[in-house]
Amino acid sequence: MSRYLIGIDIGGTKLATVVATIDGVILHKIRQPTEAKKGSDYVVSKLIQMVNETREFIQVSCSQIEAIGISCGGPLDPQTGIVYSPPNLPNWDAVPLKQIITQEFNIPVVIENDANASAYAEWQFGGGRGFKNVVFITMSTGIGAGIVSDGRILQGTNGCAGEVGHQILIPDGPLCGCGNRGCLESICSGPSIARRAKEAVKKQTNTKILDLADGKISAIKSEHVVLAAQKDDPLAIDLIQQTAFYMGWGIANLVNIVNPEVVLIGTIAIAAGELLLEPIRQTVQKMAMRRPAEAVQIRPAELGNRIGDLAAISLVRSPMNN
Amino acid sequence: MSRYLIGIDIGGTKLATVVATIDGVILHKIRQPTEAKKGSDYVVSKLIQMVNETREFIQVSCSQIEAIGISCGGPLDPQTGIVYSPPNLPNWDAVPLKQIITQEFNIPVVIENDANASAYAEWQFGGGRGFKNVVFITMSTGIGAGIVSDGRILQGTNGCAGEVGHQILIPDGPLCGCGNRGCLESICSGPSIARRAKEAVKKQTNTKILDLADGKISAIKSEHVVLAAQKDDPLAIDLIQQTAFYMGWGIANLVNIVNPEVVLIGTIAIAAGELLLEPIRQTVQKMAMRRPAEAVQIRPAELGNRIGDLAAISLVRSPMNN
After folding, report:
1. Do B163 and A252 touch (CB under 8 A)?
2. A133-187 pLDDT, tens per residue?
3. How far apart are CA A270 and CA A273, in angstroms?
């Protein structure tokens, strides 16, 4: 009788459930809007229904499921399986998700915050394959990271390790969503790049950034900055280079502390490519110590939009072949 | 037949060898000056002789030695056992120390840089007992750290993890020994505190710092600043509070990335006590994210000058009882 894995990916806007082989090959997937505002009870019962639909579609019984992996926005405690109040899941407060799902299916459940699970997926399936020490950095609405150290997720004391985006670079810098000022995220996240672009465009309107935003400063997004830089717009290139400096500074500090072999950067770094990555590398080589700087590669993440499904599955797949 | 452990502590000014029980109780110790300038061959052959003297003194044969632990100034690679060019061991260049000692005694050898080994010792014998995630920060001539994560030393890719002191806080700040500017070490190490004190005393000579340095600005050391602050000298208190702010900032970044349960700080923090520790704690609570900040305690390290011997022994003692 074949054995299978279930993956559950809980995001602020959509939910996904997948069934995979024990090697991690995804066989079927269902997606639904999260409707987070309807509260955790509603979302959790929808998830349970989705899990059953997904496995029934390919005629897999509960007894054939080896384990369920859950990737969810943090903060959450991977030991207790309690999800605290993720910014993208309003009204969730200390939801004992692991316990609920374990009781429902009577199958082992592993839960991790999405940044850690994504790092684990990149290590098993993506740009981290073949390395022992991998950091995956999300660079989109926020800046988060997961750290894989010697093939294990570095969880820390209460599941909070990897908050690379909230290291403070400029104590009197821009206000961050976390309440502090001058965090890496407050300078280099997508919305932060857009904010810096808006300020710059107010002073210098002759830029392709503004054209791409249909002439409306308020409509400028980080994507416009990346596209304009790729079209050689000088202001956009300046903004990307500033971004690379702060990302490189933050990554250099991380490299000194954790000494990874590879740092994989997602979303914006994938879109911007070498335009952003090369100056990040140069800054890391300059600002990190020589030996850890020599040991590290800085690359775009590889899994793209497959990462959510694989993140959940990677938690329960045996990574013995890595 | 009883079994024993050997510990070797290699510092820039002195060498020590100890014999301990397999539980880590130190039975005998020998100390010698390093005489590092005479080169690695000289130092290594002296070490071998010291190991033999130490064990012969308490009549322990080589066959009774279970393992040899070596704590040595980094950079070094704990896997290959090669010691690169430690700043405190001039003329050492890629010395295959683990291989030499293994071949000499035909006993398993474990080698670690002193910061990592000290963290491991604090976890096993000192202020880190009972915790799973421990950071030990040296705060003396330099600022280094060792990270114990889930009971294992976080080594990183080439043994360089834990360089907390070389995270950059102020990119145009003071020049650091590592060649960069504005590293935590360039602001908060003993010599850096002394440098800041000298600059401040030039502008304001009415201070107990100057009295303690016999009236000579050039003779000011960090110890004078600590002592003057303990005698309520306002300038010294300012300098300690500045130091606490930067230490707290650097530790907050570390806490966000590694999420430890306890951060133990040595030497200067032990001498200054709560005068330094309390404002460090306040800064960490302010600058780190709420959940990792709530999880962490900031305390003085506990092993004091026993740390060198226990560092080497902790590497080979089985920490199963921790």
Report:
1. no
2. 999 999 999 999 999 999 999 999 999 999 999 999 999 999 998 899 999 999 9
3. 5
- Under DSSP, is residue B148 helix (H, G, I), strand (E, B) or coil? strand
Find chain A residues with C-beta within 8 A of B150's C-beta: 152, 155
Q: The tokens 């202001």 sit on which residue?
A: A235
DSSP string of A217-276?
A: GGG--HHHHHHHHHTT-HHHHHHHHHHHHHHHHHHHHHHHHH--SEEEE-THHHHHTHHH
How many other C-beta atoms lie within 10 A of the C-beta of residue A219? 13
Return the DSSP state at B168.
B
Q: What is the pLDDT of residue A36?
A: 87
Q: What are B120's two structure tokens?
A: 């491991």
pLDDT for the residue numbered A322:
53
Q: Which residues contact B288 (CB under 8 A, 6 or more apart)?
A: A166, B251, B252, B253, B255, B256, B296
| Whether A163 and B292 lie within 8 Å, measured CB to CB | yes
Domain locations in chain B?
4-113+306-321, 127-302
Is the CB of B172 inside 8 Å of chain A's CB atoms? no
Query: In 3D, which of B143, B95, B119 has the Cα closest to residue B243?
Result: B143
Common-topology check for domains A4-113+306-321 and A127-302: yes
Query: Is the pLDDT confidence value at B231 over 70?
Result: yes
What pLDDT was estimated at residue B154?
96
Fold of A4-113+306-321: Nucleotidyltransferase; domain 5 (3.30.420)
Tell me which DSSP letter residue A142 carries. Answer: S
Identify the helix (H) or strand (E) that includes residue B127. none
Domain A127-302 belongs to what architecture?
Answer: 2-Layer Sandwich (3.30)
Per DSSP bridges, beta strands A109-113 and A82-83 are unpaired
**CB distance from A293 to chain B under 8 Å?**
no
From B168, B249, B254, residue closest to A171, measured CB to CB: B249
Mutate to test the interface with B, among A176, A256, A294, A296 (most CBs of B within 10 A): A256
Instruction: Please give the Cα distance from B57 to A310 (Å, whole number).
Output: 60
Instruction: From A174, A165, A167, A171, select the one nearest A194 (Cα to Cα).
Output: A174
Q: What is the pLDDT of residues A268-297, one digit of tens each?
A: 999 999 999 999 999 999 999 999 999 999
Q: Does A253 touch chain B (CB under 8 A)?
A: yes
Q: Which of A134, A152, A169, A253 to mutate to test the interface with B (most CBs of B within 10 A)?
A: A253
The DSSP string of B271-317 is HHTHHHHHHHHHHHHHHS-HHHHHH-EEEE-S-GGGHHHHHHHHTTS
Assembly ipTM = 0.94
* A258 has a chain B CB within 8 A of its CB: yes
- The residue among A83, A84, A167 with the most chain B CBs within 10 A of its CB, best to mutate, is A167
Give yes or no for B312 touching A (CB within 8 A).
no
Q: Is some CB atom of chain A closer than 8 A to the CB atom of B68?
A: no
